[in-house]
Amino acid sequence: MTIALEPPPRHGGLRRTAAFTLLAVDVVTLIGASAAPTPLYALYQTQWGFTPLQSTLVFGIYAASLLLALLTAGSLSDYIGRRPVLLTALAVEAASMIAFASADGIGLLLVARVVQGLATGAAISALGAALIDLERTPGRGVTVNSIAAPAGLALGAIGSSLISEHLPRPTSTVFLVFFALFALEIVGICAIPETAARQPGALASVRPALAVPAGALHMLLRASPCLIAVWALGGFYLSLGPSLARTTLGVHSSLIGAIMVATLTGTGAVAVFLLRNVAPHRILSVGAAALVAGVAITLVGAETTSSVTLLAGTAVAGVGFGAGFQGTIHTVMPLARPHERAGLLSSIYMIAYLANSAPALIAGYFVGRIGLVDTTRIYGGVVIAMAGIGLGAVVTAPRARICRA
């Protein structure tokens, strides 16, 4: 059965286009801010004696608080409207930037990460749903949402690295820049049209639960192995990628870690754009296959200490990163009705960020036990296995069911 989506609310053309653009920028900024601490881990290590386990803890606690926000506030904007959720979340996000800028040790850094995770989790599903609400062409909101996430990671990592390398007070300046951006975006959100009508059930919606419409459950289960592989790989790069680059290549600049992250996520964003008109099952197949090949090449680069091989493998894996996430969104999201969009998107992000954080935390623990290189070998093997399972799930899925999506 094909689900017919209700048309989005009508708004003035220029105002609607401007609102759509602002929401896309908001996604990029939020995700970019989440990647901002990654290039600073080397500085934290120098100033505070930061260890690999602590770097994965800082990353993991962010993801855990984000998951909590998705579980409780993920579908709230379906009931009280997009703007109230976004205004509150962006204000809390701005406060977290001040906490980051003021941090003088791991304690306040962890507090800042928790606050940031709560704000990002509350905002991200509302932003994705609002983009779909305001899209002029069916599928455009999904595509922009799929591009914005990896693009934000790339820009956040590179921007943070460049600021920390060339501007004073490297561990605080980047967060003050993000604070200013969020302040401007709060003003912009006040001017955009509301796209979701209020409805009863807001209090019930904040009870921890996953909101997956029955019609979308089967396809979400099919796409989940690839989604898990994508975000597990992203978690490794965001938490331990800089350490891997410094260890295997002998380069101690924060820029090399940022380049690793930006290569993965930047090629992911390009892949999303190039594959935007390809059938969903083909996108998922490309994503899973690219993950297998890219991670294998990256492992060879780590073994041979070849920067060219390491970055080439990262670029190929980046195609899988973008295509795997895009394929999941394109396959699953059209199966939700308008009032189910934020809830379903929050469930997708729940799976993504759980895969993003839990394996990275485990890897951080094992780095102290068996070393970074051996941990990387095992982690890469697990990602390859999950991507292979995902490829098999897509290949064996009934074509008619995917084509309806």
From TrEMBL:
It is a multi-pass membrane protein. Keywords: Cell membrane, Membrane, Transmembrane, Transmembrane helix, Transport. Residues 12-405 form the Major facilitator superfamily (MFS) profile domain. It is found in: Cell membrane. InterPro entries: MFS, MFS_dom, MFS_trans_sf, MFS_Transporters. PANTHER family: RESISTANCE PROTEIN MDTM, PUTATIVE-RELATED-RELATED (PTHR23517). This is Predicted arabinose efflux permease, MFS family. It comes from Rhodococcus jostii.
